[in-house]
Amino acid sequence: MAQSISVSVEAPIENQIMSIDYDGTEVYANPLTQSEYLTRNAARINFMKSSETTEESKEEEQAVAAAAFQASSSPFENILNKLKEAYTEVTVLHDVLAVSKEKHYLVLDPVPMHEQTEIKPMAVVYARKKALGMAGNILISGAERLKRLDNGPDFQIELLRLRQNWRLKKVSDNIIGDLSFRTAGSKFMHPGNFEVSKSDEVDIKGPNPSTLQVTIPSELQGVAYIKVVTQKDQEDLCSANVTMIDHKGKLQVGEISSWQKKLEFAQNVLFCKELFNQLAREAVQLQATIPHVVIGNQIRATLLPGIQLIISLCHSTNYQEFQEETKKKADDLHDHVLEHSLHQLLREIHYKNTHYPIPHSGHAVGIAKKRLLAGPHSYDRHELWEMTRCQNQTLLEQIIGQAQHIFMRKRTQYVLDSIARDVKDPQITSHWNALNSPTLSWVKINITTHGYDTITRTALVVHVKERSLMAICRDGRVMHMSYEPQELRDLILQQICQHQITGLQNLSRCMAWQLLSNSNHLGIGDVEPLGNANAILIASPLGDRVIAVQVRCDPQIVVKVYVSHSPREFYTSGPLVQGKLWENLGSEFKDVNFDKMEGRNFLNKMEFLMAALTKIKE
Amino acid sequence: MGVTILVPYPLDNKKTGPEVVEELSKRLLAMQATQTGHFLVDGDVFESSFNKTKIHVMHNSEYPASVFSILDNGQKQIPLITDLIFDLLMLKVNPIYASRKQLKIESKGPRFELGDFLVKLGSVTMSQSQTFKGLLIEVDYRPCLIPIICWELIREFLQGFLGQYSPTTIPVYFTNSVPNPHHPVPYQKSNDTYQPIDTVQQYLEHFNNYRKQTIALMMGPNK
């Protein structure tokens, strides 16, 4: 059998909590008065429902009313009850007092009175002091703020200074500035806005106290730069960073916080983003033989086989990191030319976007001045074609061209320097033209022999272009070479050999020797890996001595000299060759140990040799 | 740029114009020249209705951005080089300068490149009926600017492929004395720097000769 347990639900005795103060004290709601209680209960009654009560409930109501009538039948019953209760209480009290008198079962202790706290005068003093101190602080801080606003940096003055350097406009209650290069001709879509606001909390002791605050959109915050790296088989050859800020200068923490610096940094970020955007767009659009690759913030383009140009956008929001990086960069090989070029190219595009040539007639808007002059100056087809080709070159094509040229120039320099170092005998001097265009430079190469400068001098000019070389030799021959450095090396070596032979030829003329034969490409003898040997045959004034010289066209410039005597020294007439006259035929050529000879260089040695072999007519 | 010499090729009655062009092209190709498209030089005549002043408007495909116009009042020729919109201007002044359609003349044909030389074989046709008038051979030596210096070279080159028909003296256009505005002594074109307008003026001379021949022919039967 289930036993039913009656559960009594009672309202808590405590009063309801109305609110809790900040110090944790609870504020209780006052207990309801009787009238309030009544109204609350009355509110709960559904009068609509009561009006629809059934007959049963009516009967019940009548029964309750009858009971109430019976209860109130004796008018003094209420008083009687109360007197009874009072009597009972008095009796109980009497019993308790009787028991407690025995002091056996119950002991009465005096109820302690609420102790009157003793007020210490010092505590009061402290408490008041503290309270006064706090109040004073509030007043002082308020006063200071007012003072700062009077003496410190004025918001209006600063706004004026900002207005002088940056474009501002008022949009309802806000001041909006413009960082973009749109007025300079940029067509980049980024709005580049910043907001100017007034800040109340100013650090007066800081390096740049300012009440003016600029808010920059999050994507423009931080520092950005464009890194250009020329890479050959994973090895960096040169790199360049493009920013508007001189990143070698040290950044002070205070400088970063000042609004001027902040805006400059943000504008730089915008510039870099635009530049990269433009380059990336072109890289995708260009139809190169080896397609350019754009991955994330990096563009890869192939300059020459095995050599890559990598342009990447670096953007960091941390100033400290940036500073550390720039410190590292300072040691790197750093190409200012590429940096400057990229910078300049975008500026040029901006400039062209705003500076149209003066319109001559309705049809001529946006046409370059050169093109306008093409008609009246009667440019021919070739010139016009060159002009359109130059104009339609994209930014990426131009920078690739420039990088290729820089690379070609370095290669040519290296080849010339290494030959000048390795080849001792004729001196090789190269003069680089100081004034050159970003994609064309030229070098003049002089080959001279020390002490014989007036006798012979070989000069040639090499034009260094984007992907090719063009050499103009002294005899007017024009040679086109590719980007392979070996081709230039071969040409220079060949020119050296030719120089030696020509020098000897001129020298022999001065010494009254006769030139018998001269060949720049001797087809006989050992097969040369590259080029042919040069040879010359000279005879003494009397014709009794013949010298043959062969100059081999290899990196060591090997010289071989042979001498033949006439008449023969040991002539024996045999049965086959009879008669004394045959002894005048030249004897066999004998090798001269040229390395052991006196003399500073080839021509000097040859001069000595010729002098020794010359017989003066008696 | 360079020096251009224009020589008419005399036609005998044995061969027609296209045949001669074909033969010369073969000769040039045998000399290892490369054909680089075609060329066109045309000349229009506009005549004033008041006085008999003429404006010759000429185009040369070698100078595609330019219109050459020469004002001819009988005693003097004034050249003017302009943009392509000059053609539109001439249409505007149509009431004053009327176009003489039947005098429109053009020379077109293949264009060859051979080293520093540029050779154009032009067959001259006149008016809309495209009647064949003759052959004009243009030789351009590009590295030089002074005609007298390179004339001998060009003459030799012309001999190479024209044979007996090649000219022996420099065209008269270059030997005519021109008054010098800066100096009392007149000078010759052959000593001066060559200009693109000189090519056009040479063409104009030859075109005018063809026109005169045509007019003479037309007048002949009437008489």
What descriptive keywords fit this protein?
heterodimer; A: about 625 residues; five-stranded antiparallel β-sheet; 21 strands; B: about 220 residues; alpha+beta; TATA-Binding Protein; nine-stranded antiparallel β-sheet; two-stranded antiparallel sheet
Give the SSE map.
The complex is a heterodimer of chains A (618) and B (223).
Chain A: E1 17-20, E2 26-28, H1 34-44, H2 47-51, H3 55-71, H4 77-102, H5 121-151, H6 155-165, E3 167-171, E4 174-178, E5 193-198, E6 212-215, E7 223-232, E8 235-242, H7 253-257, H8 259-285, E9 293-295, E10 298-304, E11 307-316, H9 319-329, H10 336-354, H11 369-374, H12 381-391, H13 395-422, E12 427-432, E13 441-448, E14 457-464, E15 469-472, E16 478-481, H14 485-510, E17 514-522, E18 533-539, E19 545-551, E20 559-565, E21 590-592, H15 602-613
Chain B: E1 3-9, H1 17-30, E2 34-48, E3 54-60, E4 67-72, E5 77-82, H2 86-92, E6 97-99, E7 105-114, E8 117-126, E9 131-141, H3 147-162, H4 172-175, E10 177-178, E11 187-188, H5 196-222
Antiparallel strand pairs in B: 1-9, 2-3, 2-6, 2-7, 3-4, 4-5, 7-8, 8-9, 10-11
Major sheet characteristics of chain A = 5 strands, antiparallel
User: In CATH terms, what is the architecture of chain B?
Assistant: 2-Layer Sandwich
Rounded to the nearest angstrom, the radius of gyration of chain B is 18 Å
Q: Which runs of chain A of at least 5 residues are low in confidence (pLDDT < 50)?
A: 246-250
Let me know the number of strands of chain A: 21
Question: Beta-strand percentage of chain B?
Answer: 35-45%
Number of helices of chain B: 5
Oligomeric grouping of the chains: heterodimer
| Biggest β-sheet strands, sense, barrel of chain B | 9 strands, antiparallel
Protein name (chain B): Mediator of RNA polymerase II transcription subunit 20
GO molecular function (chain B): transcription coactivator activity
Pfam families (chain B): Med20
GO biological process, one term (chain B): regulation of transcription by RNA polymerase II
